[in-house]
Each structure stands twice: as structure tokens, then as C-alpha cells.
Amino acid sequence: MDTLVLVWNLNTGEKVQTLRGHKLQITGVALDGQDIVSCSIDCTLRRWKEGQATDSWEAHKSAIQAVVKLPSGELVTGSSDTTLKLWSGRKCLHTFAGHTDTVRGLAAMHGLGILSASHDGSIRLWALTGEVLIEMVGHTSIVYSVDSHVSGLIVSGSEDCSAKIWKDGVCIQSIEHPGCVWDAKFLENGDIVTACSDGVVRIWTSHQDRVADPLDLKSYVSQLNRYKLSKKRVGGLKLEDLPGLEALQVPGTSDGQTKVVREGDNGVAYAWNLREQKWNKIGEVVDGPDDGLKRPVLDGLEYDYVFDVDIGDGEPVRKLPYNRSDNPYATADKWLLKENLPLSYRQQVVEFILQNTGQSVVAFDSSFRDPYTGSSAYIPGEPSNRSAIPSKPIFKHIPKRGMLVFDVAQFDGILKKITEFSNALLTNPDTTFLSLTELEISRLGAVIKILKDTSHYHVSRFADVDIVLLLKLLRSWPLEMIFPVIDLLRMIVLHPGGASILLKHVEDENDILMEMITRVATNSSLVPNLLTSIRVVANLFKNSSYHNWLQKHSSEVLDSFSSCFSSHNKNLQLSYSTMILNYAVLLIEKKDQEGQSQVLSAALEIAEDENLDSDSRFRALVAIGSLMLDGLVKRVALDFDVENIAKVAKASKEAKIAEVGADIELLTKQD
């Protein structure tokens, strides 16, 4: 955070040199012979020799998060722009594209290539020629670090509070921690070192003669249990906040009054029996299937709010969780550190939280010293220290990189609705033959169990008959009943195995996806069908196997959903504009001018309507800017009076819309 590189004498523990030059926090260092190479959020690589900077260059357009030297001598960098780059000196030999979010950690894998860890939750092994050799999916949150050993094992550390060990692309062990695992490294002897957010460094071994003594092992188990207890919720309440059994010593006040108490690691409900003057046990309290509808969930925890934050610079949308009882300044600091973003963004993040939660600005002690920057707390309404804010790139929100997906689902609610519809079909003699058997409902339950277990997506598999069953329902059930089936399909396409099986049914003569889209589009009044179908299409962009299909059918897909932008349903508007933005990213990559023109037309239609939801307009404007920046359809955009659209957007009270409006306006003035 202090922007310094420090060189230490390992024998004496003394600081030998202080290397100054980076403008923002430093994210990595690599040794290259006698030289030191450092990378930073300021987008630069710097080379140091004998305490002096000898070279510096902008290696990415977005923050650089990691640098590593390969045994062959080249350097590799990973960035918030979702790419890796291979360097020989200042020359970029290759750009590795494939991750859909920030590349946070890198490691060389001897004889094979380079490992990358990403905020998208995956780890990839790349050949130096750019091909993905293995993709490892198992973590349920940001992966911060990755390392390899000569034995062929790989270790990764994640925000999901685990370090995972991988062999041949398969997770063979998951080591739980009482907090986020910031870093994980192999020692030469094969032991693993982890750095956890609880402030403890732990060494793990497979050799019995090096296992810690029983007291240390007991302490670890105790820390782990306390951490799990602090996170566990029952009935929407934190387990640790529930009273113990002693609360049952206090008599109830009315017959049937309920009280939830903590018994071990569970919450148990009791009801007061007025006649017998005692508490009767009702049973264990669990979170019901609809609890998640009340409060948003991120990484298994409930919050009052989970915001989508688009920080621009072509970076993916980030998730910002917040509870109304939290200090917005502390939340901003913690979130910026987690996302490895400049602390100078603190002001904007706090303002964003206050604005979007409807909270009034409260007075804070201006004498507070930020532990990371040493500066005073930002107080809304007061001028900020501009010298601490980095110079902004030319464009704040374009080009868009990476695809947006809809990856949250109420699985229990989906199964409940499918079962409800099946029962309705069963009671009608004309439709009894369409209802599901108990075995078929059980099979759908098995499908949902696989989808819930995201940590095993890399090894879990669907049976072909299960996917065929879903497709049968899509084709045969009444139109007004198919939306929960489509919603299940939306999640299946995010599962590697599910997407592969479905692809077979897409590539044959009876293309089930186009059949579904055509069927849904015939009755646009059924909003749930449109909403779930568009989200299926949006999620297809996540899997490169579907990119050719998406390009081939772009015109038909866009025409089928063209009426959605004018819907009064905000979720439908946002889903449609998300699909448009994903199409812009794909067709720019494919250099498809005709397809880009149609996407541009759809995006302009959304952007022109000032009455639409601001998030929908923003995504459409980002699509327009990205398409114009690419150049193939810039002239078309100018012919459609994009200058006026940019002018209106720039005048918006919504900061992000005004910013992307300024981006587009700048584009219109460039040759």
C-alpha cells in the first residue's frame, strides 16, 4: 500500500534498500537474475538494478495484479483486464484471454506452462503458446493464489476459506480455514504454507513425523468451529446471537409463544404451553427455501444489500455486500483491499453506498487516520485530496471485457414450482399424460443437488436422460408452465458437463434452444418465460463452445427478444441489456460487422429511452462505446445521431451514465 519495494538482508533482518517509483500499491515482485521486477495497480512493470530503476513500461491498460518469472527467462503478468501477458524484455510475445474476471495469482508449472488464479473462481494451466491445458473449478469464490510443486501437485487459496490441492486437474483435498486464504505456497519438501485472514500462518504436511502436537491441532479445530459458528444462520438469525438453554428458565407470556434457543451447533424452537406452564420443543430451525428471497446472499452469507459495482476501466462487475448496521467507511476499506483496488476510490465507494441505501450522511471524526494510507477519513461534502487520486484513463467504462452471467438461483423454489405444475397437470384428465412420475421428480432433485454443489463442478456429471427429460418438458408442457424448466436450464448451461450435453441437442437438426426461443417469443405477455429465456442466452456466453451458435443465430435471437427493452419489468429490461452487452463483446471479438450493426441498433434503442432503468441504459451505453471503439460500426453510430445520445447521457444525474456518456462523446470527436 505504501508503493515501496523493500530489499532485506535475510541474515540480519535489516532493510538494505527502498525502491521508490510506483504511483499506487504494489501487487507483486519477481527476481530476474540480479534484477528485481515489480508490478502495480498503476498498470506498470518496473525493473530495478542495484537500487535504481532501469526500466518502466505500461504492461496492461488495467491494474496488474501479479508477475512471475518463468524458468525459460520470460516474465508473465496477470491483470484486472482478465488477461495474462508473456514478456521478453518489453516485448509482449502473447496475450492469454479466457478468464472472465481479474487474474489475481500466477505460478510457473515446470515443463508445462503457467498457472493462473482468478476472481472468476477458476484456476487455469496454460501452455506458453496460449492454449488452456486444464481448467480447475471448485472454489466458490475469488481465488487469490496458486502454486505448483515438482511432484505435479497444485495448491490454491481462496476467499471461500479453503486451500485446495489439485492433481491432474482434479481437487483431491480441501483444507478448511477460519478465514479467507490470502496465499498458499509449496515448500521444497512438499509441505504447504497458508496465510489466512485470521492473522495466522499455518504449515501443512503429509508426513506423519512432522504433524503438529495435539494441542496445536486442537487449537486449530477450535478456531475453525468458532469461525463456522459465527457464520451459521438459522431462520435468518446468526446462531451465535441466539440465547442458550438458560433462556427456557423464563416463563412465557402467552399460549403458543415461540422462542428459538441455541443447542450445540443448532437452533431449536420451543412453544410455551400456558396450561402446563412449560416450554414444549417444536424442532430444529432451518433456513427455508424462500429465505434467500428476502435478503441477498453472497458467498453463503446474507446481507441487506449486494450491489453490482462497475468500476469501469474495462473491468468486470464486482459484488459489494453491505448491511445497514455497518460503517460504510469500514466497508469501503475492506472491499477495496479485497478487490485490490486503489484506496483513492474510497470516496466514490462510500458515496455509492450512502446513495443506494438511502442513508443520510452522518458526521465522522475527521481526526481518524486511515491505517493504510495515513490520511484523514473522507467526509462527504468536503473536498477530497486530489493529489492522492490517480490520473484517469482516457475512457472510464469502455471497452467492456468479459461476459456477464446470471448465476444465482432459488433451486428449492424452482423444484417446488415444477412439482406444483406437474400436480396441476395430473388432476386434469386431458393433461395427465404430461405430468411427472415420482421417479422423474426424484431425477430433477438429483440434477438440482449437482447444481447446488458448485465445489465439484469439475468432477460432477449429469446423466443424458436427465437433460432429455428437461428438454421434453420444454417441448410438451403448456407455455405458461415452462418458465421454471427454463430457469433450471439457465443454471445447467453454467455447469461444464451440463453445457456439453445440451450442446448435442443444439447442434442437431432440432435445435432445442432456437425452438425454445421461438416458442417463448410467440407470446410476449408471459414475462417469466421471456425473463428466464433471455438469461439462458446470457449465460451461454460464459462457455466458448456456444460462441459459434450465438454468432450464427444472433439476428434471430435479437429479433425474438426485441420487444423486451420496452417492458415495464425492470428485471426483463436489465436481462435484455445484459444480453446485448454480451453480444457486443462477442461480436467485437469475432469481427462480425453485420452482427455488430444489429447489436448497435438494439443498444441505441435502449440508450435513447430515458425512462428505462438506469442499469439497463448503462449496459447499453457501454455496448455502444465498446462497439464504436472497435471501429467497424462507428460510422453507423454517428449516422444514428449517437452524439445527441452521448450528450443526454453526459447530463444524467447518475454518475456512471454521465461517465460513459463522456466516453462516447470523446469517441465521436476522435478521427
TrEMBL record:
<feature type="domain" description="PUL">
    <location>
        <begin position="396"/>
        <end position="667"/>
    </location>
</feature>
<dbReference type="GO" id="GO:0043161">
    <property type="term" value="P:proteasome-mediated ubiquitin-dependent protein catabolic process"/>
</dbReference>
<feature type="repeat" description="WD">
    <location>
        <begin position="57"/>
        <end position="88"/>
    </location>
</feature>
<dbReference type="GO" id="GO:0043130">
    <property type="term" value="F:ubiquitin binding"/>
</dbReference>
<feature type="repeat" description="WD">
    <location>
        <begin position="136"/>
        <end position="167"/>
    </location>
</feature>
<dbReference type="InterPro" id="IPR038122">
    <property type="entry name" value="PFU_sf"/>
</dbReference>
<dbReference type="InterPro" id="IPR016024">
    <property type="entry name" value="ARM-type_fold"/>
</dbReference>
<dbReference type="InterPro" id="IPR013535">
    <property type="entry name" value="PUL_dom"/>
</dbReference>
<keyword id="KW-0853">WD repeat</keyword>
<feature type="repeat" description="WD">
    <location>
        <begin position="96"/>
        <end position="126"/>
    </location>
</feature>
<protein>
    <submittedName>
        <fullName>Phospholipase A-2-activating protein</fullName>
    </submittedName>
</protein>
<dbReference type="GO" id="GO:0005634">
    <property type="term" value="C:nucleus"/>
</dbReference>
<dbReference type="InterPro" id="IPR015155">
    <property type="entry name" value="PFU"/>
</dbReference>
<keyword id="KW-0963">Cytoplasm</keyword>
<dbReference type="GO" id="GO:0010992">
    <property type="term" value="P:ubiquitin recycling"/>
</dbReference>
<dbReference type="Pfam" id="PF08324">
    <property type="entry name" value="PUL"/>
</dbReference>
<dbReference type="Pfam" id="PF00400">
    <property type="entry name" value="WD40"/>
</dbReference>
<keyword id="KW-0677">Repeat</keyword>
<dbReference type="InterPro" id="IPR036322">
    <property type="entry name" value="WD40_repeat_dom_sf"/>
</dbReference>
<feature type="domain" description="PFU">
    <location>
        <begin position="271"/>
        <end position="367"/>
    </location>
</feature>
<dbReference type="InterPro" id="IPR011989">
    <property type="entry name" value="ARM-like"/>
</dbReference>
<dbReference type="InterPro" id="IPR015943">
    <property type="entry name" value="WD40/YVTN_repeat-like_dom_sf"/>
</dbReference>
<dbReference type="GO" id="GO:0005737">
    <property type="term" value="C:cytoplasm"/>
</dbReference>
<dbReference type="InterPro" id="IPR001680">
    <property type="entry name" value="WD40_rpt"/>
</dbReference>
<dbReference type="Pfam" id="PF09070">
    <property type="entry name" value="PFU"/>
</dbReference>
